[in-house]
Design goal:
It contains 14 helices and 14 strands. A seven-stranded mixed beta sheet has the order 2-8-7-6-5-3-4, sandwiched between helices. The protein has two domains: 144 residues, Aspartate Aminotransferase, domain 1; 240 residues, Type I PLP-dependent aspartate aminotransferase-like (Major domain) (Aspartate Aminotransferase, domain 2, 3-Layer(aba) Sandwich), CATH 3.40.640. With 394 residues, it is α/β, with parallel strands linked by helices. The structure holds pyridoxal-5'-phosphate. The site of pyridoxal-5'-phosphate has 13 residues, from helix 5. It is an enzyme of class 2 (transferase).
Length: 394
């Protein structure tokens, strides 16, 4: 008999991690799988950051840190927010967590009561809906279109708002679509939200630096949104530090205090060595990571060119992050190599089994017609993967 709680029984397994596990299984059977499913830079953490961690170990940073992070790290975050985002935060407004994922889980836990609705423009990052559900919130999906670059319009936002709406969560640059909201597009959303003062905003900016056109804008930069916006960021993507597990928020101080209280009962402060290393990462000029962004930009051109040569892949032009999110619905209903493809999950599985390429179904991101392909892989692997996909489908 299943003795587990309804909470865990109702929780979906992360689709990106599930696909990675399936790819690992096939590799163990000796299959040569190319993994384009994970949202993880394939670079190493820069040496100057690793050196800072080694120094912290030698300086005996081994005790519990303050729950919300070392003051020196919070100061570096405040300077970063000012330098890169024109945002003014004070120490009590900043909380350091074990990855942006924990920052988001804290926010859901401290902001949501049972039945509170959270608007998620689709496609959204895979964990948003389950993090919201874990805190008894109700995700409300808003379908966007590839024609509008997968961005939610002001009209769509307004139509989704109900008396139960508590929050809206989005990422820009977006995982999985790569879309970046312009200042004008965010202003249009803010003009709607102005009419609903009890709705709070999560602006997830973890891909901020992986932006190919520039012009990153934070919702909290608008004076009339500042008191209602929680700015989420972290070092996983920009600094190739996924395993170090450091994320952070800048928020109204009452929300930050609540996150601090929550974290104090669940995990305490984030890893002390990683925190010291992140001080060095954030104090560095963002130009120190430009070589990675330049490489991602080249790969984006490569993968878009290669995909344009395959029938039935319709893509937008991602302006940031390291994913393409092609609409592959023209394959639905077709049978290829004896396998019938009825939806994006079938298609992604077909690519894994017949092309030996791991991708992720769009269903995990709230979109039934697309798949996500990560180009955080070498140009050689990208080229070979798309060649295999083309062959398998032809
Ligand atoms: C949009 C988005 N937000 C948050 C996260 C979580 O990042 P972290 O590694 O800091 O927990 C990810 C990771 O994939 C992401 O893509």
């Amino acid at each position: 008999m299943n003795q587990l709680s309804d909470r865990i029984n109702n929780l979906a397994t992360s689709a990106t991690l599930a696909m990675a596990a399936k790819a690992r299984e096939l590799r163990a059977e000796g299959k040569d799988i190319i993994g384009l499913s994970l949202g993880e830079p394939d670079f190493n953490t820069p040496d100057f950051i690793k050196d800072a961690a080694i120094e912290a170990i030698n300086q005996n940073y081994n005790s519990y840190s303050p729950v919300d992070g070392y003051v020196e790290l919070k100061e570096a975050i405040i300077t970063k927010f000012k330098r890169d985002n024109n945002l003014n935060y004070t120490l009590p407004q900043v909380v350091v967590s074990t990855g942006a994922k924990q920052s988001l889980a804290n926010i859901a836990a401290v902001m949501l009561n049972p039945g509170d609705e959270v608007i998620l423009p689709c496609p959204y990052w895979v964990s948003y809906s389950d993090i919201v559900k874990l805190s008894d919130g109700v995700p409300v999906e808003v379908q966007t279109s590839i024609e509008n670059d997968f961005k939610m319009t002001a009209e769509q936002l307004e139509a989704a708002i109900t008396p139960k709406t508590k929050m809206i969560w989005y990422s820009s640059p977006c995982n999985p679509s790569g879309s970046v909201y312009s200042k004008a597009e965010l202003r249009a959303l803010a003009d709607v939200l102005k009419k609903y003062p009890n709705i709070y905003i999560v602006s997830d900016e973890i891909y901020e630096h992986i932006n190919f056109k520039g012009g990153h804008f934070s919702m909290a930069e608008f004076d009339d949104m500042y008191d209602r916006t929680i700015t989420v960021n972290g070092v996983s993507k920009a600094f190739a530090m996924t395993g170090w597990r450091i994320g952070y928020i800048g928020a109204p101080d009452w929300i930050a205090r609540a996150c601090n209280k929550m974290q104090g009962q669940i995990t305490s402060g984030a890893n002390c060595i990683a925190q010291r290393a992140v001080i060095t990462a954030l104090e560095a000029d963002p130009s120190s990571i430009k070589y990675m962004v330049d490489e991602f930009k080249e790969r984006r051109s490569l993968i878009l060119n290669l995909l344009s040569e395959i029938d039935g892949f319709k893509t937008n032009e991602p302006e940031g992050a390291f994913y393409v999110f092609p609409n592959i619905s023209s394959y639905f209903g077709k049978t290829i190599k004896g396998k019938t493809i009825n939806n994006a999950s079938d298609f992604s599985l077909f690519l894994l089994e017949e092309a030996l390429v791991a991708t992720v179904t769009g269903e995990a991101f709230g979109n039934k017609d697309c798949i996500r392909i990560s180009y955080a892989a070498s140009q050689k692997d990208i080229t070979e993967a798309i060649r295999r996909i083309k062959t398998a489908l032809s």
